[in-house]
Design brief:
Number of helices: 16
Largest sheet: 8 strands, parallel
Oligomer: single chain
Radius of gyration: 20 Å
Helix content: 55-70%
Strand order of the largest sheet: 2-1-8-7-6-5-4-3
Length: about 375
């Protein structure tokens, strides 16, 4: 049995952290589904920037949309939704077979809205309606303003993928925002079955402390943070508050491990896949990590419900001078800033490609 199938059988979903028109047209994504147990995918501005910049798959669409007078964000969202609708249709049988637990794709609101709650909700509602696919999450960052938007979008019935979470505290804030939105739907007599996932970023922790801690602690912080967060996840699902919501028909917000490609060239290329096996969770991974795990990976021990050695390991980092609370805030802020840069690069890429097509007489 393939390692990817073993993880699937343990109750963990593997999603691809990538989408390109080439993956769709070539049949590669379908092969990942059929052969490597991929049951969903995520996207972000960097992924689309790379896809558009490094291929000609989007040239005809960009040319046509420019003729229609479209540019900038409007043009991009049309391109993205074309890809994501096709991917959502590919995953639709999985979505239907699992009752909406699995089989999802994700689209991010403009990163420029990371600190704009009202704008984020308005954009989330618009994009989800425009997508016309039930298995499409709208990604909203877990910033302070994002937490407000998550509750309001959930209450509005929009499935949300909470992104840019870096700690159990940030996760709990996002989970409680989702729960508040669900509770408000129950009180208003609305269907509480609005799905959500909470995406906790892992490898960026270890990259952030590279060279700042003893060698024996390298590549251990991200996993410890994940274990601490998994404990909080299990505690929430066991709480009386959640059981009450579940009794009214609510569905759990699933925990998702993001940023799980190994960044340290000296570490195992499947480090975070093997270490983060856990039922009722998702691991979203880039193609390179997926293929490596399918080739030579093996699921490790399941994450312990009680967090295992997480607190002892994190205490060692504190002794080494790492303030994880401050670092979590820094990582979230830096993540939001990097998404803004990627967004600007993406729009520049679309603009320059359109101009090049026009100069070449192809417009």
């Amino acid at each position: 049995m393939k390692p990817t199938q073993q993880l699937h059988d343990l109750g963990q979903s593997l999603w691809l952290d990538n989408i390109t028109r080439g993956l769709l047209v070539s049949g590669t994504l379908r092969r990942y589904v059929n052969e490597l147990s991929i049951t969903g995918l995520t996207s972000n501005p960097s992924i689309f920037d790379h896809a558009i910049k490094n291929s000609n798959f989007y040239d005809d669409a960009i040319r046509q949309k420019r003729k229609e007078g479209k540019s900038g964000e409007a043009l991009f969202f049309e391109l993205a939704l074309e890809d994501l609708r096709q991917a959502a249709d590919l995953f639709r049988p999985i979505y239907d077979a699992t009752g909406g637990i699995d089989g999802w794709v994700s689209l991010e609101v403009s990163p420029l809205l990371a600190y704009d709650a009202v704008g984020s909700v308005k954009e989330a509602v618009r994009l989800h309606a425009e997508a016309q696919r039930p298995n499409l999450f709208i990604k909203i960052p877990g910033t302070v303003e994002g937490i407000v938007a998550i509750e309001e979008a959930t209450f509005a019935g929009v499935p949300v993928n909470v992104t840019l979470l870096f700690s159990h505290v940030q996760y709990i804030a996002a989970a409680e925002a989702y729960l508040r939105g669900i509770e408000r739907r129950v009180a208003a007599g609305k269907d509480p079955r609005v799905r959500s996932v909470a995406s906790v970023f892992i490898s960026r922790w270890d990259k952030a402390v590279t060279g700042k801690v003893p060698k024996e602690l390298q590549d251990r912080l991200g996993i410890a943070i994940a274990r601490r967060t998994y404990k909080a996840y299990r505690e929430l699902l066991a709480s009386a508050r959640w059981r009450k919501a579940a009794g009214a028909g609510a569905q759990p917000q699933r925990l998702l491990w993001a940023s799980t490609g190994t960044k340290n060239p000296d570490a195992s290329d499947v480090l975070y896949v093997e270490a983060l096996a856990a039922p009722d969770t998702i691991n979203t991974i880039p193609d390179k990590t997926l293929l490596a795990f399918a080739d030579h990976g093996a699921p490790g021990e399941l994450l312990p419900d009680d967090g295992g050695d997480a607190e002892r390991v994190i205490a060692k980092f504190a002794e080494a001078g790492i303030d994880t609370d401050r670092l979590a805030a820094d990582l979230q802020r830096e993540g939001a800033e990097s998404f803004v840069k990627a967004w600007q690069d993406l729009l520049d890429c679309i603009g320059s490609k359109g101009a090049a097509l026009k100069a070449a007489g192809m417009n």
